[in-house]
Design goal:
Elements lengths: L6 E4 L15 H14 L3 E5 L5 H13 L4 E5 L4 H10 L6 E8 L2 H7 L4 H16 L4 E7 L6 H13 L4 E6 L6 H14 L7 E6 L6 H10 L4 E4 L13 H10 L14 H12 L16 E2 L2 H9 L18 E2 L7 H10 L2 E2 L2 H17 L5 H14 L3 E2 L1
Parallel strand pairs: 1-2, 1-8, 2-3, 3-4, 4-5, 5-6, 6-7, 7-8, 9-10
Antiparallel strand pairs: 11-12
Helix pairs in contact: 1-2, 1-10, 2-3, 5-6, 6-7, 7-8, 11-12, 13-14
The chain binds 3-methyl-2-oxobutanoic acid and zinc ion (ZN).
């Protein structure tokens, strides 16, 4: 793998599917897994096989349809979980077991009522056990975001010795600030013996709206894998949104980091996941929201009509959206009305546009948006005064 490639680990089918109401059946999981593979993700986390017979079945079917990506199954640091995951992954071309344990003081004290020594022992044992089944073993230090860096480094060092190929540093509670998360990754890069033999992975939750910023800070500081979901779905406020990190790295080439994602499939994939999971995409969602390339205020519309780049940093075609849209509202100006009228066949003179705009404002003040049918009605009014030439 090239030094500046960031692997995309998609967990839509695992962390994403944990969202209440987003449960998928095997058929739906297969359709999404095939699409993720076409999209170019490097790893698909297909589920948590020990959690239910349905999830076990889904993971064992997903491995059959995925052609390029590694397929991963989640486990706790529990032998039975690892055995069941290995069984579900047995037909995978590139299987990965993702095992781990909580490492923060609160997890150790309240969840396990245990000690740091015991957590390290269980972590090592889980990784070594998983290595009996697959070569590719990812270890997660749950709640790493709130884990003391020196202890985290010790855990990482020990699991690398046991054979972990990837070290997942989850900000499970979405607590970290970008600088803090980036510093954590840098600390691990500089203080874990053997770190050159493993990939550091960012798994950030969005409780404070910082999941994407934290993941980017992580890769800028040396991580080379981002764990994310389509549309940012996931536990509570969600996970890092795949489409966001991919486009950030694409739009900022000076970071000198890239992914293998075919960004032109992003919009379609977003809609497919939304429909299968019954989870609407908020209109103002970055990259894939309905308004991501829509312009409604007069000043912006005038700029975009003259040159798209005045108010857009992404070419909509790069993410699979045909074109930017000019939405007509009471805040729109003459340029936008003339533009939309021309699109549906009306070429207006300056005088006609003045008349049309007056009528348009009457419509726009009464309704949220003026649509093509309204423009036809407006043009009838204008035609009464002067004949419009049809473009
Ligand atoms: O958020 C988290 O810590 C997780 C782990 C299970 C990887 O999802
Ligand atoms: Zn998570």
């Amino acid at each position: 793998m090239k030094d500046n490639k960031v692997q995309i680990f998609d967990t839509t089918l695992r962390d994403g599917e944990q969202v209440p109401g987003c449960k998928l059946d095997t058929k739906q999981k297969l359709i999404i897994a095939e699409r993720l593979d076409q999209l170019g993700v490097d790893i698909i986390e297909a589920g948590f096989p020990v959690s239910s017979p349905g999830d076990f079945n889904a993971v064992s079917e997903v491995v059959k349809v995925v052609k390029n990506a590694s397929v991963c199954g989640l486990t706790r640091a529990v032998k039975k979980d690892i055995e069941v995951a290995a069984e579900a992954l047995k037909n995978a071309k590139r299987p990965r077991i993702h095992t781990g344990i909580g490492t923060s003081d609160s997890h150790i004290k309240y969840k396990f009522k245990s000690s740091q020594e015991e957590v390290i022992r269980r972590a090592k044992e889980a990784v070594s056990y998983a290595k009996n089944f697959v070569d590719d073993v990812e270890f997660y230090a749950e709640d790493a975001g709130r884990t003391d860096n020196a202890f985290l480094a010790k855990v990482c060092e020990e699991v690398i010795k046991s054979g972990a190929t990837v070290l997942n540093i989850p900000d499970t509670t979405g607590y970290c600030l970008p600088e803090e998360y980036g510093a954590k990754i840098k600390y691990l890069k500089e203080n874990v013996k053997g770190i050159e033999n493993a990939i550091l992975s960012c798994h950030c939750h969005n409780d404070l709206g910082l999941a994407t910023a934290n993941s980017i800070s992580g890769v800028v500081n040396g991580a080379r894998q981002i764990e994310c979901t389509i549309n940012g779905i996931g536990e509570r406020a969600g996970n890092t949104a795949l489409e966001e990190v991919v486009m950030i790295l694409k739009q900022h080439p000076y970071l000198n980091l890239y992914t293998d994602i075919n960004s032109q499939l992003l919009f379609d994939t977003s809609r497919m996941v939304s429909e299968k999971m019954g989870m609407l995409v908020q209109p103002n969602k970055a990259i894939v929201g309905a308004n991501a390339f829509a312009h409604s205020s007069g000043i912006h519309q005038d700029g975009v009509i003259k040159n798209r780049e005045t108010y857009e940093i992404i070419n909509p075609e790069d993410v699979g959206v045909n074109e930017s849209s000019i939405v007509l509202t009471a805040r729109s100006g003459r340029a936008a009305l003339a533009y939309r009228a021309k699109k549906i066949g009306y070429e207006l003179t300056k005088v006609q546009l003045d008349v049309a705009y007056k009528t348009f404002l009457e419509f726009a003040d009464k309704q949220k948006e003026v649509v093509d049918e309204d423009i036809h009605l407006i043009m009838k009014e204008v035609n009464k005064i002067s004949k419009i030439s049809v473009a």
